[in-house]
Specification:
Layout lengths: L5 E8 L1 H13 L5 E4 L1 H6 L8 E7 L3 H12 L19
Antiparallel strand pairs: 1-3, 2-3
């Protein structure tokens, strides 16, 4: 069986931001591993080099992951830009 090669799609500050992006990528069918310096995670740092979290994705999905992240950072996924599958409860 071939071993998955992982690539860094992004580096963010703080575990909360990393988890948010993990959810976004996983919702698009992309596997994600978060990698943070052990000392930073143990202490709970969210600033500086020890607070950085690498977002790793399979190398063969790197370009797709980067495009999704670019769309996220540009605001494409903001609340007003997403069409809801359910009708607004205020509309009839």
């Amino acid at each position: 069986m071939a071993e998955t090669k992982w690539a860094v799609a992004d580096i963010v500050t703080g575990e909360m931001q990393a988890e948010l992006l993990r959810g976004l990528l996983e919702a698009q069918g992309i596997q994600v591993i978060l990698n943070q310096e052990g000392a930073g995670r143990a202490i709970g740092l969210s600033v500086g080099p020890l607070g950085e979290v690498e977002i790793l994705v399979p190398a063969d999905q790197l370009e797709l992951a980067k495009q999704i992240l670019e769309d996220y950072y540009s605001g494409k996924f903001s609340e007003g830009d997403i069409d809801s599958a359910e009708p607004d409860s205020n509309q009839e």
